[in-house]
Fold this protein.
Amino acid sequence: MADLVSHPDEVRVVSKRFGQGATSIDRYLALDGYKAVQKALGMQQDAIINEVKNSGLRGRGGAGFNTGLKWSFVPKTSAKPKYILCNGDESEPGTCKDRLIFEHDPHAVIEGVMIAGLAVGAASGYIYIRGEYRYLSEIMQKAIADAYAKGFLGKNIFGSGRDFEVYWHGGAGAYEVGEESALMESLEGKRGVPRIRPPFPAVVGLWGGPTVINNAETLASVPHIILGGAEWFANLGTPKNGGTRLFCLNGHLNKPGVYELPMGYNLKKMIYDVGGGIPNGRKLKAVVPGGSSCPLLTESEIDVPMDFDSLMKIGSMLGSGGLVVVDDSTCMVKFALRIMKFYQHESCGWCIPCREGTDWLKKTLIRFHQGGGIKKDIDNIQYLSENMLGRTFCPLGDAAALPTISIVKKFRKEFEDHLEGRPCPFEKAGTVERLPVFA
Amino acid sequence: MKFSDQFEARLAEMVTHYPTKRSVLVPTLLFAQDEVGFLSDEVISEIAGRLELTELDVRNVISYYSMLTTKPRGKFNVQVCTNIACLLRGGEELMDHCEKKLGVGHKGTTPDGMFSLEEVECIGACSWAPAIQVNYDFHENLTTEKLDKVLDEYKKKGTQ
């Protein structure tokens, strides 16, 4: 069970029921649960979509696409069944927010799936939870069973004459499956290899039917929008970036934790006030603003509102809301290496630039960190990374390249300090560098 | 081969959730592994038969997912995260400590079959780093002292 934290600047929407015992369906009902879906049952499909569109809710998985707009791409009529797929394969390094939603408010996800289903005319939804989250899968399975027992799911929901099914599905360890098309492959019982787009899932998705795929936090936000209204939700954030976000504050911080803050909250304040600043009198060196796929920011760049557009303007991404704060005792070459080791391990091997690029980069960075780097390697790391960008089916290649390019550009001197057989200046004297164990 | 009644009931229900039988494959393999300890040839052949797939289809899927294994592991699989959030808060020290204490390396198993060790990628415990998972249980905000206690508890549990 993960610890909860709090800060006076928090605006609790998605986390409103955290720590309130809302895994119990009766408690959830007492806390306004399943009211939004009943309201949605009385609304036209377009009205639901427009409400969500106008709320400025954008995908919390990382891509930040307007959720209502995504829903509007689903064709009105379809020969094949339509599906809702909740992405709970949370695996982006630095991200641990969906875990809290599943642990504390599983019914909000179910309700979000139902409302999405009503909006696009789907009659069933799947909630995919990563394999490592076994205890959360158990919580979710119980929540679904409880909702069926109350008659909220199944035939004739809330006496509306409409049917809706929600099913749990589990993974078995794969970062790549968090990518929407790989997620569908995995749910269909295959290797999580991405599909080429177009066609997009909204048109051809699960078993060929139109499919809406949303992150768990996105779906958990939907009932609040239906009850509170688009305007209220939009006004919590910044223009075009509606609502709040569960920010995971990690790394070198005095008070790490998951905090729900309005979109557009200042990053500097997030680090020094909410996160309690950097321990041991150390200074800030870098910040990963939204999961390990995002270009890193340096001290001079952190006075920025944390919303999708502001981060894009300064050449980074808000991503999945997982911040990793790095202090000045950290070797950035090693940090780049650890990130690359991850992407090399998780690359599904389908696209050659990603499969070969991550492997080559990992090997180069290992050699570099061990003191075997040559000057040309520095440019080579950047060149290789840049050549992965946009040349793969799915964004995993980009995810490996973007942070690496930013580290080479912003911390070039640290690479130069490793040249000519010099030992890593950040390793403690007498310690032996761990050899990379991933095959 | 025989699985538990719970496994059979769950599988029978799950196949009704999808338009294709194959869709139950990934979670079903993990549930089978939980019962048998690993995905033996016998398990693979059984599941392939039930879902009307070839063994090759099933093996192809197994090799993709990092939690699935065709080799036996220790009773307690200690998974140490060393990804960035854990790295900055001592994940590598925990891994080193486990290696010394258990006397095995990455993907190794102790001779008594009690523990196996694995360095893993992000397990979603970043805000409570450094963290490990032993089988499915999370242990968070660890220090080497706390880790010793955790491992000793499991050892006690395993020898009872």
